[in-house]
Amino acid sequence: MSCEGSVAGLWTGEWQEWIRLRAVEAGFDTAGVAPVYGTESEVGRVDARRFEGWVDAGRAGEMEYLKRRNEQGVLLRSGVEVAMPWARSVIVCAVNYNGDGPLSIAPAKEGTGWIARYAWSGRAVEGEGELAPSDYHDEMLGRLRRVEEALHERYACETKCYVDTGPLVERAAAAKAGVGWIGKNACVLNQGLGSWLLLGVIVTSLEVGDDEELQIAADRCGSCTRCIDACPTDALVKPREMDASRCIAYLTIEKKGAIAEELREAMGRQVFGCDICQDVCPWNRRSPVATREGMLTRREMVNPALEWLAGMDAAEFRLWFKGSPVERTRKKRLHRNVAIAMGNSGEMRFVPQLEQWSTGEDEVLAESARWALGRLRRLEEERKAAAALC
Fold first, then answer.
1. Which residues make Cβ contacts (< 8 Å) with residue 364, sequence separation at least 6?
2. Mind listing the pLDDT tens digit for each residue in 153-181?
3. What residues are labeled active site?
4. CA distance 227 to 74
5. Which segments of the chain does DSSP mark as H helices, in order?
6. Where is the 4Fe-4S ferredoxin-type domain (predicted)?
7. pLDDT confidence of 69, banded at 50, 70, 90?
8. pLDDT grade for 310, boundaries at 50, 70 and 90
9. Could you tell me the pTM of the whole model?
10. Beta bridge partners of 11
11. pLDDT tens for residues 203-216?
12. Average pLDDT over residues 70-79
């Protein structure tokens, strides 16, 4: 689909800088523009083969939306043009979400869980002392719309905005747009911002000029393998390839039903998401703290007490998590995760709560609680045996 504009529908270096400035004005920390490579191109074929191989290997777990195909049987996310034949470029906008708080691998009070850093986010509400929950999907979509409006003032072109919902692989577009390189932890890494980045995209029908030099970020992971070595569940099967079905973030957020027993001990105290592969990354040592509205840190989300989370009824869960990314997990899955974290804690004070859950109507929670009780008892026996040897 053609576009009309002052540069004949082409992205030039000058206009790419213009769109980056519009993105920063809208509340993003950086942005870039990537061309859409059709599946007839070598780059497009490589991307398509890589994604299809990842899905066929079962790496997507139960995330069926990643496996969707068109009528011809082609995976929708194997190439932007598969679902949007008019697409010619992708604007990738990134916002820093590095909350003001400790790392998940830092010493923490006994009996606390871990909620992923991106889910700490909140926004100030006039007249209230506490921050209200915010969800990056909503925050970023509003910002993308502002960038889109600025673009439409300059061009008559077709556009689509997406935050995690579009038929494309955002990190691949981000790498081509120069936002960062794909690190060995499979996250987008930016030399100045680190990997605490949330991505939003605007797919456009604007062409990128053939003579434009792409601002692709250099890969600066070098020989470092700290993220791969630190992953408790061995989800990083090789550099830049994650088996999502083993990832703690997937297990605690996306996975429905029971979590495989062989992965539970390795989950540690994670109750929503996981930050370990980013916590150990050297590029995150100097990552700036997020200060943008909607990305402020809700202190209650940092190292929350497992007892507090376990005691939440439906009304209290809504009070603390409605409008937050945690809302999508829902209370019963959060409690399943809390039960596993209680079992891994070694704290016998959690026995009464786990016993209550173990006889409840929710069979997934009940089974998780029974496993946790068994683990606590084994850990207690090991402690007693070790004390007897001293």
1. 257, 258, 332, 336
2. 988 899 999 999 999 999 999 999 999 99
3. 164
4. 32
5. 13-26, 42-56, 80-83, 136-154, 170-176, 226-230, 248-249, 261-264, 276-279, 306-310, 314-321, 330-345, 351-358, 363-389
6. 212-241
7. very high
8. very high
9. 0.93
10. 208
11. 999 988 765 556 77
12. 93
Q: What residues are paired with 188 via a beta bridge?
A: 182
Look up residue 193 and give its two tokens.
Answer: 């911002």
Nearest CA-CA partner of 181 in 223, 218, 227: 218
Q: What is the pLDDT of residues 114-143, one digit of tens each?
A: 999 999 999 998 777 789 999 999 999 999
Place of tokens 């009996």: 111
Residue tagged 């973030």 (tokens)? 249
What type of residue is 238? Answer: K
Q: Which residue has the tokens 């577009």?
A: 173
Geometric angle at alpha carbon 211, from 210 and 214, rounded to 5°: 85
Listed by start position, the domains of the chain span: 10-100+121-208, 305-381
Q: Which option is the CATH number for 305-381: 2.40.160, 2.60.40, 1.25.10, 3.30.70? A: 1.25.10
d(CA 329, CA 344): 21
How many Å apart are CA 248 and CA 164, to the nearest integer?
19
Q: Which tokens hold the place of 254?
A: 């996306």
